[in-house]
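Record format v2
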Amino acid sequence: MTNKTITVALVGNPNAGKTTLSNALTGAKDSVGNYPRVTVSKRAREIQHKGWTIKLVDLPGIYSLTSQSPEERIGRDFIQDERPDIVLNVLDAGSLDRSLFLTTQLIEMGRPRIYALNMVDEMRKKGYSIDTASLSSMLAGPVIETVATKKQGVTELLDAVVAIADSGQLDDKPLQVPYDGHLEDAIDRVQKTVAELHPGEFESVQSRWMAIKLLEGDDEMLRREGEHGLLIEMVRRERFDLSHTHSDEVEIMFADARYGFIHGLLSEVRTRSLDPERRLSQTRLLDGVLLHRTLGLPLFLFFMWLMFETTFTVGAYPMDWIDAGVGVFSETVAGILPDGMVKDLIVDGIIAGVGGTIIFLPNIVILFFFLAFFSESGYLARSAFLLDRVMHTFGLHGKAFIPLIMGFGCNVPAIMATRTIESEKARLIAILVNPFMCCSARLPVFILFAGAFFAQWAGTIVFMIYMLSIVIALGSAIFLSKYVVRGGDEAFVMELPPYRMPSLSAVLYHMWDKAKDFLKKVAGVILVGSTVLWFMQAFPKEVAWSVDYDTQFAALEAQAESAERDAAIAKLANEQGREHLEKSYLGTVAHTVAPIFAPLGFDWRDTTAILTGLVAKEVVVASYAVIYAQGAEETEESNSLREALAANMNPVVALAFMVFILIYAPCVATIAVIRREAGGWHWVGFSVAFSMSLAWLLAFGITTIGGAIV
Amino acid sequence: MSNMNTLTLADLKPGQEGVVQMINGTADLKRRLSALGLVNGVKVTLGHTAPLGDPRAYEVLDYTLSLRNEEARKIVLQGA
């Protein structure tokens, strides 16, 4: 109705209940939730309240406003450069000391503030009580007690926003965190120089903030002011003098002073009725079991087993329904459309491709139900804690374990799950090694080949392939962390949040978010990929046939009806299909690139299968079926396909081929998700080149060494 | 440089409490640790230890923080 708009930035520690509060405020109609870490687009949500449009900008969870992590930079740049009208600071009432450290810096950034004292219920359980009125006056902004999970205090928060907006007092109430005399003098001098260098540009609170950040040696601020050599030199000298007179580093002096301020403040507003029985909290009891030195790991492995077991057993039912649904849909469409290219494209290309992928949706939804539950309850952080020592040996982070295991199912959700890893470097490595984990789509290929070539040891061979996939993933992690992914090893400094019962809405929201991501991908990459693959297989329509199929068909048709005649017709049709594939664009491309694979012992048929596998690894078996003129309905269990394969390849080359399929380039869906999660095509390029080279080298090694032995 | 006589966070026994005296290491690490409340004069108690002895969980300022021993060794405690 009116165009009175006010921008509110939501800032707070991770695990302070920011997402839940934000959902409670907006009614979770258009949920955004966890910040996409790589694509740094800030999405704002709008709330209508008492004649105002409140634009709520969700900033990532941070502990401080330095410029160390991308999250901190996003938060800081937003407040610094876009100057939101109000900063809504979410405080974890249960650990106020730490929460207020961020607040001391928000105060210095000089925007009007409202404080949500969140999870006051947990705080009371710890035996604390807070004098909210005094805290409010000491922090120069309204303090509202909230319990976001129960939507308590939500209206009061919105009222507080509107009250400030209505009063028109969108200027900061002056409040300074006091520092030691020498620090204050230095701040004054630097602030004066900053003001002189930027005349009329900043309010005094802004120049003070800049002076503090400069003195703290903040890289980003030093870079911004880099052109002012005089200022940089002055800051360097002040830092040198301060650290010499105090025999401590300047950033530590600032941190000490901030905690001093917090300590003084809390000693006035917080009282504690120490109740020794209550101290033995729920979290401690649970940790006593879940983090137990001998029980901890077995319990974790049991939860993992439960997660996968449920994913595949429960997931099998909706998968059957989807499969049946796609089948019916495909037949219906085939019945409606007239024969021709459009029908072939839609039925054999699009419906087959999209249908074959969408079938994994139940798995993804169930897997993310567990993951959301682990993450929201606080157990995910514990699992990282339990496994960090092992993972660290391979240059990985403790939190990379779950995504790696998920890779056995499908690499796409697995790579999406790496978002829980904060450190940029550790996360990138976890993303890049994930495609080496043998996803379930590759399994049919191994079943087919192991059955065709190593019948007695088929199970062992498949198991060895899985072991190899783990070895390669971990080995690559070591290689990547040493030589490829830049940046120092980030310290494993992680909060273990109290256990909390996840709210159903939060879990559902995470599941929906992942399902949406997956469906978007299916609608995009898979759709395009399967269309292109179909096109390359189907065209050119007319090829130079080696035999006159039409005449032969006619001759067969003319014979008396018999089982032999029908079999002969089917055989001829398969034969024609094979020749068409060989002479299609796909076959032509395969013939062209086949020389690259010749040293490995692969011919044009294997090359075609490899190329089609780029769209989705499941397609490899289907391609062989067409190539060996078996008809596309053949599966990995099919005996005739096994015989045809065994007649055309020797076991050594077959082993090389299996290893090649295990390692070579990620499928298009995985490529799309790598691009998005790793943040750029260059990582996709690296991933493809790296896995291709590794696959080629290993397959070459097997062919050469194996060839010499056999 | 730490020697045998300095007591660090990594030397705490389960349930034992110490008071932070000084933090060694890079400026980055110091900033991260101080943002999480590990500053001079703060009390820290050792809680759980992961199955392979590393990392460990510490109770500090009413919450639980996990650190690898590598970092814990850089946090010097007030004299034993």
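The longest strand of chain A covers residues 5-12.
Chain A has a mean pLDDT of 84.
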